Amino acid sequence: GIQVEQSPPDLILQEGANSTLRCNFSDSVNNLQWFHQNPWGQLINLFYIPSGTKQNGRLSATTVATERYSLLYISSSQTTDSGVYFCAVGDFNKFYFGSGTKLNVKP
Amino acid sequence: EAQVTQNPRYLITVTGKKLTVTCSQNMNHEYMSWYRQDPGLGLRQIYYSMNVEVTDKGDVPEGYKVSRKEKRNFPLILESPSPNQTSLYFCASSPGGSSTNEKLFFGSGTQLSVL
């Protein structure tokens, strides 16, 4: 299967700071998504982004498919951004997840 | 409201006692799949289904069964649960599979403990 590596594994930020989360994957994919798992365990889809750049409010994501990586940018972080961020890649209807980046935003 | 519904939310059982976790979606999605989440390992796909009566193995199918008799339902069956199947389980659906530009929508999860 496809290997997905996320970095950093843990991140602590002060409210208002910016951050970049990275997702590397081992093979070409036709689907890439970013998810946020909140402290209650809910998985929320942030972006579908197999290539290019998208923005949604304070969040943006960029995927460079030819170099097999994706970046998630969080600007002006808030305490509600805390949780775990997962990258998932898909190929032939199978999905592979990274082990996540655990973000803690302190007030 | 468009949603993926899993039941139960929490389940404690004993080794060997057959159980079923239900999953239902009201979005007329073709694709449904099951995942388990374990600490430090992210989510791993157990089974997926492209449509009614079409299912296939994910990365970790051993010890699990699924069926897709109706488009909206995709139950996960553990015929003889073992303690190593203690985990947090998620069901997800999507209009199409990974080859389409569609997002995955997740249920709220089922925390299973096998004693």
What are the SSEs and their pairings?
The complex is a heterodimer of chains A (107) and B (115).
Chain A: E1 4-7, E2 10-14, E3 19-25, E4 31-37, E5 43-48, E6 52-56, E7 59-64, E8 69-74, E9 83-91, E10 94-97, E11 101-106
Chain B: E1 4-7, E2 10-13, E3 19-25, E4 31-38, E5 42-51, E6 54-57, E7 65-66, E8 76-78, E9 87-94, E10 105-106, E11 110-114
Parallel strand pairs in B: 2-11
Antiparallel strand pairs in B: 1-3, 3-8, 4-5, 4-9, 5-6, 7-8, 9-10, 9-11
Task: Provide structural commentary.
The complex is a heterodimer of chains A (107) and B (115). Chain A is mostly beta strands. Helix content of chain A is 0%, strand content 61%. In chain A, strands 2, 4, 5, 9, 10 and 11 form a six-stranded mixed β-sheet that branches. Chain A has a five-stranded antiparallel β-sheet with strand order 1-3-8-7-6, with no helix packed on it. Chain A has strands at 4-7, 10-14, 19-25, 31-37, 43-48, 52-56, 59-64, 69-74, 83-91, 94-97, 101-106. In chain B, a hairpin with a 2-residue loop joins strand 5 (42-51) and strand 6. Chain B contains no helices and eleven strands. Chain B is 0% helix and 50% strand. By secondary structure, chain B is mainly beta. The model of chain B has no long low-confidence stretch (mean pLDDT 93). The chains are: A mainly beta (107), B mainly beta (115). The A-B interface holds A 1, 4, 29-31, 33, 35, 41-43, 45, 48, 50, 86, 88, 90-100 and B 31, 33, 35, 40-45, 48, 50, 56, 58-59, 88, 90, 92, 97-106, 108-109.
